[in-house]
Specification:
Length: 139
């Protein structure tokens, strides 16, 4: 994992750690667990801190954001509509043309193996789009 600074400056990884600590409840624990699964799924993922305080994980583009609300921890996948979700982890923002999200509520457990596959599929989709753009530029 390569920590980077996001648009708000500072060390993104440290900002994400601080956010997790500030939450101090099930949301912080959930965000920390999801963060670890993301890192496990893609050791080359880049952590960013954008939009005045949103954790973002990127690899050849945004993979997902991690937001915390009163009732849910929401992971929004930038290209979620384009990736396979055989285990039906996406349960929010299902009507959009691009994004899909996973809302995790207090006490819910996520299918870790399926989640890691989803992260890897999102990275593969980003890489494919990047390669396609590069090929078009060469023409």
């Amino acid at each position: 994992m390569k920590p980077t600074s996001g648009t708000s400056g500072g060390d993104a990884s440290a900002n994400i750690t601080k956010r997790i600590e500030e939450l101090g409840d099930w949301r912080g624990e959930t965000l920390a667990q999801l963060r670890q699964l993301i890192r496990d799924a893609d050791p080359d993922i880049v952590e960013e801190w954008k939009w005045m305080g949103t954790p973002v994980w990127s690899h050849d583009g945004i993979v997902c954001t991690g937001e915390s609300y009163k009732q849910v921890v929401k992971l929004t996948f930038a290209r979620g509509a384009s990736i396979e979700d055989p285990k039906k982890l996406f349960n929010s923002s299902l009507e959009g043309n691009a994004r899909r999200a996973i809302d995790v509520r207090e006490g819910e457990k996520i299918n870790e193996a399926a989640f890691k596959k989803l992260i890897r599929a999102a990275v593969a989709e980003n890489s494919a789009v990047l390669a396609e753009r590069a090929a078009k530029k060469k023409k």
